[in-house]
Amino acid sequence: MKENLFEMLLSLFEKSLAQLKKKENSGSESGTSVEEVTEEDLDSQENLICIKGANELSTRVFTSDERLKLTKASYQFLTRLKLWGIIDARVFELILNQLLFSDSRVVSLQETKWTIRNTLADSLDTEQLAFLDLVLYQKEDQLTLH
């Protein structure tokens, strides 16, 4: 069994290496080329995960681990801040990563607000920080917006 698995991995590596060499050679000869894909290539790349960079119009899909870590309130709060344009996609990912690496088993809304404030505090001036505090803690302090 181990030998068979090793042979499969070795053949997959050799095919990938050959394709890369072919791609480099054809890329240097002509500007763009269309590569023909065979069924054997599709079978070998069946479990391949392609990750594409974020686009402004793309929607962030949460994994099951991320959904279990965040409470519903903290998830909704983060998405609303992103939707309202208070935080952009890059800051959203930064805050989400900090929350996921938290020691808490489940991240509460309070911890989410605290993380957002600490993440953005260095990059904002006093007026922007006051606005952020108003957005984060307005409902808790029973403040009204005019």
Mind sketching the topology for me?
Layout: H1 2-29, H2 39-44, H3 64-69, H4 72-83, H5 89-100, H6 109-121, H7 126-137
Walk me through the structure.
The chain is mostly helical and 146 residues long. It folds into 2 domains: 2-44; 64-137. The protein contains 7 helices and no strands. The protein has helices at residues 2-29, 39-44, 64-69, 72-83, 89-100, 109-121, 126-137. The longest helix has 28 residues, at 2-29. The model has no long low-confidence stretch (mean pLDDT 77).
Label this structure with key terms.
146 residues; mainly alpha; 2 domains; 61% helix; Smg; DUF494 family protein
Largest sheet: none
Q: Using only CA atoms, what is the Rg?
A: 24 Å
What are the secondary-structure elements, in order, as H or E? HHHHHHH
Helical residue percent band: 55-70%
Beta-strand percent range: under 5%
Structural class: mainly alpha
Count every helix, treating DSSP H or I runs of 4 or more residues as helices.
7
Terminal-residue CA separation: 71 Å
Q: Taking all residues together, what is the mean pLDDT?
A: 77
Judging from the principal axes of the Cα atoms, what is the shape? elongated
- Poorly predicted regions: none
Q: List the domain count as a whole number.
A: 2
Number of strand elements: 0
Protein name: DUF494 family protein
Pfam family, one: DUF494
InterPro entries: Smg
Organism: Legionella israelensis
